[in-house]
């Protein structure tokens, strides 16, 4: 097993392939997850990302009409899934670590578990807000920003734990990835602000950047140019997703605050049904991928959303 940065440097300029998966919904078998991974293993991914999902609140009506607030996690198991993937497929697994819903102590415990399991790559994210709250509220005793999470991970790499009475703990050896937003995070005032905070995460210990999905390569190339001009030198991995249904024309911009080029919108809208729309999305993403590969990107990272068919059709043309 190796660090993500080692996989990239070891490829000697060859573009690598990777993808991201979602943990199964609570109660579902991990076999469903494996069934979505296996068709993509022929393209030799050096690693697979596993998302982490924060808690959501649900309200149960009790006797007398009172509402009881309960916390639930719809997709638990990220740490265990990473271990299972590494054991079954012999590739590195990269768990997402998020600020939302976790205290610093809970984060430390998760990092200790990952270290014990030999998982030494992590992607440090702030995470999304709870839908019912409308904006991000950190857990009491948790981190408000991804940069704070990066600091905690970097401290553990230096043997510094939360307990100040510990003079020197075991040093972890995590390779830290961070997120980047070619069309800016929806909370960033402008691209200059976006780049400033991305650079902060890198300066604090981020060793590579994975971009939010985008559908216009000009956005990615411009983002990379801005990052390089600001002094960011780490690998910047493009994140891609093929559109697979007509409703994603409205769902994706709403969830991820991104732009979809009008040519792609027109083509999807002109498709007679979702099957045809999916083929349009595959062809668009394949063209994006070929242009990015020709430009020498270190790796193409696909957001599979747990479904491998579209990504496999694209990868078959490239790898």
N-to-C order of helices and strands? HEHEEEHEHEHEHEHEHHHEH
Distance between the termini: 21 Å
Number of strands: 10
Helix tally? 11
Report the β-strand fraction as a percent range.
15-25%
Sketch the major β-sheet. 8 strands, parallel, barrel
Helix content: 25-40%
Overall mean confidence score, pLDDT: 90
Shape: globular
Strand order of the largest sheet: 1-2-5-6-7-8-9-10
CATH architecture: Alpha-Beta Barrel
Weakly predicted, low-confidence segments:
none
Radius of gyration: 20 Å
How many domains would you count in the coordinates?
A: 1
> Do you know the CATH topology?
TIM Barrel
Based on secondary structure, the structural category is alpha/beta
CATH first level? Alpha Beta
What does this structure look like?
It is a single chain. Helix 4 links the parallel strand 5 (92-98) and strand 6. The longest helix has 21 residues, at 274-294. This protein has helices at 4-10, 30-37, 78-89, 104-116, 146-157, 191-204, 217-229, 248-256, 262-270, 274-294, 309-315; strands spanning 16-21, 47-50, 56-61, 67-72, 92-98, 121-125, 175-180, 208-213, 236-240, 299-303. Helices cover 39% and strands 18% of the residues. It is α/β, with parallel strands linked by helices and 319 residues long. Helix 9 runs antiparallel to helix 10 (274-294) and helix 10 (274-294) runs parallel beside helix 11 (309-315). The protein has a single domain, classed as TIM Barrel. The protein is globular. It has an eight-stranded parallel barrel, surrounded by five helices.
